[in-house]
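INFO worker-7 received task bundle
INFO bundle size: 2
INFO processing item 0
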Amino acid sequence: HPTTAMNFLRRRLSDSSFVANLPNGYMMDLQRPDNSTSSPVSPAMERKHPQPPQPLHSSSAGTSIFSSISSAMKQTTQAAAGLIDHSTSPTPVAQKPKVLLVIDDAHTDWAKYFQGKKVNGEFDIRVEQAEFSELNLAAYVTGGCMVDMQVMRNGTKVVRSFKPDFALIRQHAYSMALGEDFRSLIIGLQYGGIHTVNSLYSIYNFCSKPWVFSQLIKIFNSLGPEKFPLVEQTFFPSHKQMVS
């Protein structure tokens, strides 16, 4: 009876062990409509004539992408090694030279010692040399320090104004001789924020010998007379106390 046969098939197809033992393609044949005229293809035939997979991109597109990646990797490697030629890059703007103020007498020509030298390998150095007595200046809170220089060069008076970036001081800034007190210029350089060798702080302190000796006394008391011997001295605020 047709109804009894269908019920039997449903019970058998619900059994997983039964379905597992069916020949390959059997379920596909059952599911195919009765009016289908095409012959089913067995898995063996499908494996015998596999369809070639379709590439996601054309060969030309793949070659182009690989070429771009290779080029980018090459540029990155060259950049890391410093091998890229920058000859086609725009010409860099010339940097303004750094001004070095040298305070010394004319017996030493400091310009020749800095000729061809660069600051950080980038900035040229322009040397302006004069003595303390040939300088004047004005310093500002935000404008730095403007130095006026009047010197005699080979019988010719040279007048120049400039803003130093650095200062090298090779003269004593203070002496008890008349007109030899240049501590105001040291203060002006400090006021304008000019960097120096040695520091302006140490140069200003060395203007007073008793002040320097007081620093030596601190070392003497710390290390002792055997490790740091010091000539004994006595300090008086003025000559009047010395006489009395």
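INFO item 0 finished
INFO processing item 1
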Amino acid sequence: MGGRLTRVFRTFNIESRARREISKEKPTAAPRHRTARLDELADHREIQEEIYRKDARLHTLLKDVYVESRDPPVRVEDRGGEHLPSKLEEKRLTKLGHLGDLDVKRVSKGKISIVEALTLLNNHKLHPQIWTAEKIAVEYSLEQKDVNSLLEFFIPFTVQEFPKETKKAI
């Protein structure tokens, strides 16, 4: 409904508005800046001849000028390869989660993805005898001290549901 109403106002008296716009006096263009110097040079033959004439005195002065250029000796400093990577990072395939294309496929050795971190924390919580710190370190290519810190300071959440009759008691 709104589109029809706006179309009516847009097309109302369109011919007379178009004629009025066309019949308006066109604005004059801004004046151009005079290039007086170039015009003067083109008109005067003496100036043109002076420009292209070879001056013998200036030519002899120019012959006396001699420029010597020497580059400083190049010193190559060997800093023991600190700018070059000493070794390429080794990558390992991740234990893929259930997100498909969104999962990280390759991770550097010594690091884990978030899906792997949650999985190993959950496995350790459910079966601490099977998933020990040593086994996790070997399985995910991590250092032992990092795995111990991870298992000590990061604990996955536990969801607890209370039965209906105990909710009232709480």
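INFO item 1 finished
INFO post-check item 1: The CA atoms of residues 91 and 109 lie 6 Å apart.
INFO post-check item 1: Residues 91-153 form one domain.
INFO worker-7 idle
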